[in-house]
Amino acid sequence: MSKEFKSYSMELAGRILRVDIGRVAAQANGAAFMHYGDTTVLSTATASDKPRDGIDFFPLSVEYEEKMYAVGKMPGGYNKREGKASENAILTSRVIDRPMRPLFPKDYRNDVTLNNLVLSVDPDCSPELTAMLGSAIATAISDIPFDGPCATTQIGMVGGFFVVNPNEEQMAVSDLKLTVASTKDKVIMIEAGANEIPDEKMIEAIYKADSVNKEIIAFIDKIVAEVGKQKHSYTAFTIPDELSAAIREIVPQDEMEKAVFTDEKQIREENIKAITEKLEEAFADKEEWLSLLGEAVYQYQKKTVRKMILKDQKRPDGRAMTQIRPLAAEVDIIPRVHGSAMFTRGQTQICNVVTLAPLAEAQKIDGLNQSETTKRYIHQYNFPSYSVGETRPSRGPGRREIGHGALAERALIPVLPAPEEFPYAIRSVSETFESNGSTSMASTCSSCMALMAAGVPIKKMVAGISCGLVTGESDDDYVLLTDIQGLEDFFGDMDFKVTGTDSGITAIQMDIKIHGLTKDIVKGAIARCHEARDFIMETCMKPCIAEPRKEISKYAPKIAQIQISPSKIGDVVGKQGKTINKIIEDTGVKIDISEDGLVSVSGTDQAMIDKAVDIIRGITIEIEAGMIMQGKVVRLLEFGAFVELAPGKDGMVHISKLSDRRVEKVEDVVKIGDEVTVKVIKVDAIKGRIDLSMKPSDII
């Protein structure tokens, strides 16, 4: 007997979104069996019964599981089992996390896991979007405390027109890839990649998504009203009023303000350390307070910084609200690499290194997106512990590093030259030397300069900056902060990152800690970031390197491309690869041939590249009577000489055609190894014979 369940559906962007509740995963706190077209995702929300001991943060975990069976593929590798999460899965988990996290109670310490299992994929219906909606629904109907629901919509722009939740084909040609999450009142998350979209157009797209989100939230509210569980009570993590009062008595407000009011991160940390030690000594006999002291001091700092900014209009380092920290830029700081640059903004410093390689070395992608199998431009970001004065072992890139790298990658993709114009795979690596706020935006600036230094003919310069926010009691009580440092990020309400050229936006990533932003805040942040990135380009980046270099580094591989008929690929490769291997052995180049006949020849010696190209042209050329060609004598017989016109293509010069005068012996005119000029007299395609002449009277 089948299990009874409730099913809800709505039309969303011309396709049916269906949600089954109570059909599967009944033991989870909340479960939504999501169907968008033929895309199917199981979204669940679970929470522990008790708070986790000894932590001062909300332990939320978000998972997005890609199963290859969802697209009818077998996993690669020996075990034929999915391995670690792909970058797409990690980035999707982050996009789900960002709008959800602020809607949980700030003092909630129970472990919560949001899991999304992709079961099938319809190319017309994004599994990532389906999972975002599924997590919101599963949490909203669960008994887990949650101030939702929220909803998410994707917007594309094809031919100048917005497309809601574009399918895979539309997304491939879209000038905009925008994801917006909203509550019923405000926008709560924005992520975008764009082809230089003007500010006004981006704002229009954001609020088109917001209007769709409101329709989805009304749909979710109906589901919650029918099947939603009562939210459970929980043990709140709070600082006792007695402890807060005692701290303020020992450390007055003006003393805390003096401790945090400095532009040097290390000095501030020393000041807070001294205050904490003084409080530990004062509370030595109150063991129950000592375990809460770290969080109590943190909260005191937070309130102090927010008051200074919002009420006193003072930033911790003394800057004006629109002021950017001191800027510096250098290129070519690393010898022998293909391109390098360093960008410094206050105590944030990124060194970027660019490597160029043949297109055959582009990253191969094995995931659920069946239309994208390779990635030509790769941006990777590293964040070592020394950059923030800490010591911990390196365990490889985490979700934060992957997210920062992806943001900087999106920022530069719109200005990269087409592969036909610049046939290279490009790897850009950002090494964080020092961090105090918005290293991803410094990575964007440094990678742009490193690409230009490497001779990559990017279309325009790109820069990025982050805008922060501190809010008060009402929607119109807020302060925007240009170029936030770490302290303002930790204690503030928003990290709104925008990259772009002088013409428009190329990427956005918005993280907030509050329940959404008003339209005025969104518009103000975008405008503030535009003004700041123009300033960075004009005053710092352009004086360092104004345009891409005309030549690539002498250490980078040179690449030549020729197009041959696909039917000639076998001739170039030769039997068991003998022909192509001989070319590689003789010239030292690397040769890659695509299925459509595009041949890429790469190496560091231009003369050898040219030689290899000439050989390939010779192999693939259609030899016709009347052609004048260069060749090498490879064999002598009594009646004539055989001349190699190209690997595997020999022609014969009869003894009577060696010279205008009578020739007694072939050896009197040529010897093996001679380079000679010949004319094609006759081509017998059936017999595969080519007759040649060396007679000057024929060649003239």
From TrEMBL:
Biological process, per Gene Ontology: mRNA catabolic process; RNA processing
Intracellular or extracellular location(s): Cytoplasm
UniProt-listed PROSITE patterns: KH_TYPE_1, S1
Residues noted as binding Mg(2+) in the record, renumbered to the chain: D489, D495
Domain of life of the source: Bacteria
A Pfam family this chain is assigned to: PNPase
GO cellular component terms, semicolon-separated: cytosol
UniProt cofactor(s): Mg(2+)
UniProt KW keywords: Cytoplasm, Magnesium, Metal-binding, Nucleotidyltransferase, RNA-binding, Transferase
EC id: 2.7.7.8
Catalytic activity: RNA(n+1) + phosphate = RNA(n) + a ribonucleoside 5'-diphosphate
Listed GO MF terms: 3'-5'-RNA exonuclease activity; magnesium ion binding; polyribonucleotide nucleotidyltransferase activity; RNA binding
Root EC class: transferase
Start and end residues of each S1 motif domain: 626-695
Coiled coil: none
NCBIfam families the UniProt entry points to: polynuc_phos, PRK11824.1
Protein purpose: Involved in mRNA degradation. Catalyzes the phosphorolysis of single-stranded polyribonucleotides processively in the 3'- to 5'-direction.
Family to which this protein belongs: Belongs to the polyribonucleotide nucleotidyltransferase family.
PANTHER family: POLYRIBONUCLEOTIDE NUCLEOTIDYLTRANSFERASE, POLYRIBONUCLEOTIDE NUCLEOTIDYLTRANSFERASE 1, MITOCHONDRIAL
Name of the protein described by the UniProt record: Polyribonucleotide nucleotidyltransferase
Taxonomic path: Bacteria, Bacillati, Bacillota, Clostridia, Lachnospirales
